[in-house]
Amino acid sequence: MRRSEARREGQPAQARRPAGPHRKPRAKGEDLAGRSRGTAAPCPCRSFPTPTSQRAAPKLSRHPSCSVSRVRSRVLHCHVGLARVVDRAVPSLDVSAFGEILWDCFDEAPSAHGFGDRFVRRLGGAPANVAATVARLGLRSTVLGGVGNDAFGLDLRAELVRAGVDERGILTLPERTGLTFVSRGAGGQPSFLFYRHETADMSVASHHVHPAMVDARYLVVGTSTFVERKLRAASRRFVRMGVDGGGALVVDLNVRAHLWKKLEGLEQVCDALVRKASIVKASDDDVARLPVADPERWLRGRCKKAVLVRTHGEGGATAIGAFGEVRVEAPSVRCVDATGAGDAFLSGVLAALSALRAHPGSERFSKAESWTDALRLGCALGAKATTAEGAVTALEDLSAEVALLSALGQRDA
Asked: Is the whole-model pTM more than 0.85?
């Protein structure tokens, strides 16, 4: 029986909200909460005005109305229950890197049959190496990757925070933490034995990628995270959300053909990433491993909008773009371990471009002088990284490089 009918029949109706001064009549066009229809609710996503290492990492959730696109530079956010407007024209991070966070376990006493019985662990995973190095250079960075809820994972998080990495992208997942066993051959060249089957770094899914994690000027991604289905979906979301938000895509080709069941898949991923990129970094070995007939021509043909950065090992590096071609020689050092040379090089390039304010789309980004400075710092850091065991061990003290970046910034102020 309806309430109106109950009243007519003299039966008691259900309790109703009071009218009059206790309840404001709802105006035409308002919803039950008193908001105008069509007005989005305040977004529950969190902004990060201070490094998350100084507080507990918040749980992020995305509201349907949320957008971090810097096309719309002012976005509603919710902080401690109060709506406020935050200017998102300037990203909260300089670098966000996507991919693996691992311990590299170095063989300290190799036997005649291979690995020995004593290992030392070092921070590993190319994205983690880049995030840690640029943080030590003074940039704001995070790495979007998974670690396990175990001793290895907790220690990895602590190691990254100690380097100054923002915690917002570091995910603690139920799976165990990934490990890599490393042995070194002649000239410090590493070989790897991976223990990464169903590990946390391989279990990052697309729903783990949130807007605050990609709110960065540079978005660093490689091709290896596109091999497995779940991780591939997360990688695509990272790229799509970051680029749509105004970030510049930095692609580290890092071609590992043996990981792919079909080489056509590798070619398609490389093609899609390179066409979206602002910077493409590739070693001579990466280019040689591309599964195409003419790798050099193929790569240059797809880098028409991007700067192609080629590393030549001891021969230095080359940048090719609208400014022409720039080459810088690498410093001569005794190589102990070449594991993280490429990661350190890329970190130096991004740090120098940031100091010079030579961001993609700016006039300085298209100047040969900017890329000369960037390659010079990149080569210096790449060489320095090889002088100790581990990808970032030799990069603990970067005070000289930080001073150089400060000088670059003041020179072109």
From this structure: no
